[in-house]
Every structure is written in structure tokens, then in C-alpha cells.
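Make up an example, fold above all:
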Amino acid sequence: MKRQAYEYWLNSISGIGWKTIEKLLETFQTPEAIYHAEEKRLERFLNVNQLKALKELKEKWDLEGEYEKLGQKGISFLTISSPRYPRRLKEIPDPPYGLFYRGGLPEDEILSVAVIGARECSEYGRYVAGELGKCFALNGIQVISGMARGIDGISQEAAVENGGTSFAVLGCGADICYPSQNRALYEELMKKGGILSPYPPQTRPQPALFPPRNRIVSGLADALIVVEARQKSGTLITVDMALEQGREVYVVPGRLTDRLSDGCNKLLGQGAGIVLSPDSFVEEMRQRFPQRRCLEANAFYEGEKTGKERGGESAQEGNHAEGLEDLDRQLLSGLDFYPRSVEQIREAMENPPDYSQIQKRLMKLCLLGKASQVSAGYYQKTGR
């Protein structure tokens, strides 16, 4: 019988964690030996509930049949003993014994950056996350995150849209798309990166599963960027894990009055690095990690570079203003990711038209998805 079938069985026993598996393997050497071990010997390492779960799964499972089902679902499985197990992850304290994945795995030699932040992010946060994901894609850097709503998913979506690679670590089975609204991203990541999970297929998402998942997100990266986080945020727990693992931590600074920036600004006060721009961050990463390389620049990057050499707008700005008339462009340039009143927008224009004309054009920008009305008379630029 295949060794992987015994490894899969051992990794799937309910209530037996990675540290317990490590102790078992120190004594029995192989998962197969654990499978055939006498109950009395196992009692030295397992409590009553763990021993019961082991026996029940042993009786219930057809080992080879269950392992073959993984392949039928398009899911691969490996353990820490495999030469393909991600090297960065192997080096962290208490690495997961096994990993399930769909698609591929992060390449050890390629620079990897984790981008995390608030689920309920601001338009500014959306914009920054998208710019980071795009820049990393254009510079051949792998993007690691958790495919969550908000910052995580936005950065990964921008990476794959610009020809890059990205890997999502889930707090559920690799066969479950969570959150469900990120189904399109989930499908794309299997083609342009991978979906990873330490949990067996059909494991439903639950709060207790996310902290171990977050350790893997930071463990797979060379550095971690926090885009937006409140004072008491789960994102900050991931930061603590990253520091424990010896990872570099960076933050995107925010305004003192924005609660979504409280966590980031606190980290700055504690000595975290600061992201001044995506390009400057990439250059710093190349200097800090000379042993890593970047994937070759793709066609998207060549197009971006050509646009800059012509002295025109960046690709993001060009796309944002495409198809707009001069007045619309003026209004768009006068908007910020923080709400501005019609009066403030009008004051920023050289030859402003009357209020009714401005209001009409602002509504047009809202319908196009380039702006949004946050309250009566106040508008902001969107991150899309």
C-alpha cells in the first residue's frame, strides 16, 4: 500500500494535532507503523478521545480507496517528509504535518510576500491592495494570502489579473471555496498559483481553524504587509505569528483619525517597516533577500514599462480615466479615497462649472463605478 495513504490517514484523525503526530513519529518512525501499533503502546501518547478517534477512523476507512478519492477531487497531498514540501514552511516553529493543495505550490527560490488586512476595508485600502498585488505580479513576486473578503482577496485578484502567481491558504478543506463570493478568484488561483489547506477535504470553516491557517500564510512568505487593521484585529495576531517566525513585517500607514489605520500606526510605533510605494518596497525586498529571485517579467510588465517610457499615465490611471470627457477627468483627479464635499471638489478645479453640472457629472462617475456617494453632497474615488 502506498506510504501516502497512511500519511493521509494519520493527518485526518480528529483531535490529533501536529505536535502529537511529531511525537508519534519519533517513536514509531512511520505512519504505517502507527497504523499497526498495539493500543497499549499508543496509550502512552494519546488521551482517551484521541485513541477513540484513531480506532474509529481505522475501522471506517479503506486507506487506498480514500487516498484515491483525493486525486478524483483534483486534490494533492504531501507531508513534511516530502522534498516538495515548501522549505519556508518547514523552517517555522511547529510546521503543519501535511498540506492539501489544488493547483501548485509556492516556489522556494521565488520571492514571496503576504498581503493581509481588514475584511471591511476602505476604498483607499482597496486601491492600495490592488496596486500591491499588481506591482508584485509585474515584478514576478508570489503573493500569499487567505482569500478572505477585503484586502486579502483584492490583492490576490489583482495579482492573477496582471499575470502573476498567488497562493491562498484556507481555514477549511481545499475543496471548499470560502468565502463563497470569491468563487471566481478560487478558480483562477488553481490555474495561476494554488489553493492550500492543512485540513482534510470537506472540513467546514470554523473560527478555531483560522489561527493555524494564518501561521501558514506568514510562514510561506519572506515578508508580510498589513494594509489596514483596527486596534483589536485578527490581523495583528497574524503579525505576532510572523514575528515569531522571523518574518519581516511592513505596514501601509494611514491617517490618525481613521480607525482602520489604528492597528497599522501602532505597528509603526513598535518598529514595523513602512511601505512608501509598491515599487520602493519591491526594491527593498530585492536587497534584503538577494538569495531569492523573481519570476521573469511578463507581457503585462512590458506594456506597463512602455507606457511609462512614453511619459503617459500609469496603466491604473489610464484605465481609470478611459472613455471620460475632460470635465469628468478633472472631477476624478479632484476626488480622494476619503470623502470630499462638492465645494471641496469644485475648489480644486481651475475653471469650475456650476454646481448642478458638477453634481450631474459626479453621478455619472458613480454609475461608472469610478466614484461613490458616501452621504449627501460627499463623494470619494473608488478602488476599482
Observations:
- The first helix runs from residue 3 to 11.
